[in-house]
Amino acid sequence: MSYLDDPRVFFAAERTLLAWQRTAIALMGFGFVVERFGLFLRMVTGQPLSLPQRLFSLGLGVGMLSMGAAVCVIAALQFSAVVRGLGEAEIPRGYWTNFGVWLNFALAMVSLSLAIHFVLSAV
User: Which among 111, 118, 113 has a CA at the least distance from the CA of 36?
Assistant: First the structure.
């Protein structure tokens, strides 16, 4: 438990959560782009991609989507642990401390859903 009685401690933890959330969104976005890059190449060249090319694009994209989901979950759990250790004076009254946590879990579910969709549509 912290004894600083300063709400800036909570807001610093929340900024850290948001920074990890932005990192996770960037990973997810890049994973989506990498996975769909094979479709772009097929459209430009007019030829189907070879199986190794398709599997590389799929694997890298799904890996990055999964990594983004993992970053979301780990950041949410870490933030929750920090908030549990704060004192009452450090958290502003009426502040929703769990909103960022639930948003991270929702982003992780979206990312995993996209990854599953890409894998199932490739089969």
Answer: 118
